[in-house]
Amino acid sequence: MDWSQSLRLIAPEETLSIAGLILLLVAAWGGDKASRLISILTVAALVAAGIMVSPALCGATMGPDASAFFGQFHADAFASYAKVLIYISAAASLVIAPVFFERFNAMRAEYPILVLFAALGMGIMVSAGDLLTLYIGLEMNSLAAYVLAAFLRNDGRSAEAGLKYFVLGALASGILLFGMSLTYGFTGTTSFSGINAALAGGLSHGALFGIVFMLAGLAFKVSAVPFHMWTPDVYEGAPTPVTMFFATAPKVAAMGLMMRVLLDAFSDQAAAWQQIVLFLALASIVVGALGAIGQTNIKRLMAYSSINNVGFILVGLAVATPQGASAMLFYLAIYIAMSLGGFAVILMLKDEDGNYVEHIPSYAGLSRTRPGLALGLAMIMFSLAGIPPLFGFWGKFLVFKAAVDGGMIALAALGFAASVIGAFYYLKVVKIIYFDEPADVVKGESDIWHKLILVISCVVISPLGFFLTKWLGGLTDTAATALFHAL
Amino acid sequence: MIHVIAFYLFAVMTIGSGAITILSRNPVHSVLWLILAFFNAAGLMILVGAEFIAMLLVIVYVGAVAVLFLFVVMMLDIDFAELRAGFVKNFPFGMLIAVVLLAEMVLGIGAYKAGALQLGTPDGTAAQPLGTSNIEAIGALLYSRYLFLFEAAGIILLVAMIGAIVLTHRQRGDTRGQKISKQIARRPDEATVNVKPEVGKGVSL
């Protein structure tokens, strides 16, 4: 192994860590007054890291060229694609945060720094080539996330969300570690390539238990049913910018990690894990759709919506083909755009006194009082439901196409049927804002950054987004190829 | 011979002090016996040639965990008599769990000894080079092959520390903290005043 090559390949991670350490010093001396400056510098660091990873994505780096530290770290096109999505989400949740936290007098200099370290951890997760790298990245992300969930510590709901997330997350980490130790014990190695080689002769019972426990731990992190219980509570309780962060970046990271584990380390054992992923996918789609129907809080609704979407993304994983992986990555990009837009809208729904309105019936008749906002929300809801002229449809189309091409027609049919249930609650929101008598609650002024994010994501998910399909499809295909050639 | 004597000495002491840990009436004594048990376990580890784990036992368990226990025991006002009150009632249940655990261990070890478990063969990355102590071997791996992960683990600890401070540290208005710079910047002529009080009038400052 070449040290200089390894150090060059982890340049984005180095940039983020050094930026984090320096900004921590700025925070120590500048105090909370410097939090806006630190936010700006953090966004700059994320942009710089994003620029650093893009050559690997555009140049289709894969295989040994991208492998650093004895294969513990893969800085290939797949990792770069996921990192770009992660950095965009992290930057967006920094940009929208100051207005929200300043309202509660809680804008603190540590917020951008914790988001930065969480993004660093997620970057390590999607580059993992070893069980140790996987766990270190996951914990770095999770620890920062627990603190972020409880960031409004004087608010009971936020503290509750943080505690719940911490206790359940620690349990999931324990289950994941147990699975990893079984895998290590029965294969004799922690590296993905080593595990792959050791299992080439067949899967022993011990290693099978290892896969099952690891999948349970990872399913918790992507909040797939039946490990989804924490999601609505944490999403509702956490401060809205943090919820926006949770709904976007960690999904990409955990999904990328799951793809690495299943399609690299256990790629020859597809028969063993496919049925588990199939169940996770279908259960998430159905429970996510049914659970959302009774919700009256918009953040809880978005939580169930994210569970539902994770189910659709897992359909691509269940197929276990490069086409499925590519469809997943495409879906993730669209999902990020929809979620960022959705939470930007939620942050713009304020009453006269500037309080955030999360109760859905209060949005009645929004189209007459705030037509622009209502249009944005309606577009996002239609796109999440996957209704054709909008871009959300294309993501669902790609995963189902991958499922059909992979010979899983029954799965595609079931998923398609369940997506109709999902459309119900999205349309219910649209009905409330367009056809109900105005409740006249939402009146507050919106911040320019929130508008900007909403406009950008609406352009992406509008029919104009279809101009992106060729370019984005090329990138996801490259990334999926890199994933299958990582070892 | 000395090996065997040392083994039995450490083993008997470990089990004995472990038993007294549970049985002693005073919780502070329990913690002290626990520390003795840790020391003897460390001795056992040295006998099997794992001196790194022996040191970890002393540094981490005695140095940190046991001292933490001691603090908890001394600071929290726990009524230990009440804790023990359910002992007789829960005894059969506890025994049942112990028997189940024992049976599982016997079965597991039996299956392993009979060769029913096909454990993986180590891939050799962590093999100890000949002629080195295992502290050297671990250090050589940790600071070369696993350097990236080692440094990343350091960042995790930093994140944990930031988290603890974010969640618990607050500015309190009702305390009068020390302002060192102000103290040092004070000059004698600002700090003291010469007054000539008249008799029977008192002093106004």
Describe what you observe in this structure.
The complex is a heterodimer of chains A (487) and B (205). Chain A is mainly α. Chain A is 75% helix and 1% strand. Chain A contains 21 helices and two strands. Chain A has helices at 3-9, 11-30, 35-58, 77-95, 97-103, 110-126, 131-149, 156-187, 192-198, 205-222, 230-237, 240-265, 270-293, 298-319, 322-348, 366-369, 371-385, 392-405, 409-435, 448-461, 469-484; strands spanning 67-68, 73-74. A two-stranded antiparallel sheet of chain A has the order 1-2. The model of chain A has no long low-confidence stretch (mean pLDDT 89). By secondary structure, chain B is mainly alpha-helical. Chain B has nine helices and no strands. Chain B has helices spanning 2-23, 27-47, 51-75, 80-85, 87-113, 134-145, 147-168, 180-185, 188-191. In chain B, helix 1 (2-23) runs antiparallel to helix 2 (27-47) and helix 2 (27-47) runs antiparallel to helix 3 (51-75). Chain B is extended, with a radius of gyration of 29 Å. In chain B, 9% of the residues are buried. The chains are: A mainly alpha (487), B mainly alpha (205). Chain A binds chain B through residues 6, 10, 17, 20, 24, 68-70, 72-73, 108, 110, 113-114, 117, 120-121, 124, 130, 132-133, 136-137, 139-140, 143-144, 146-147, 150-151, 153, 162, 184-189, 191, 194, 198, 204, 206, and chain B through 117-123, 125, 145-149, 152-153, 155-156, 158-160, 162-163, 165-167.
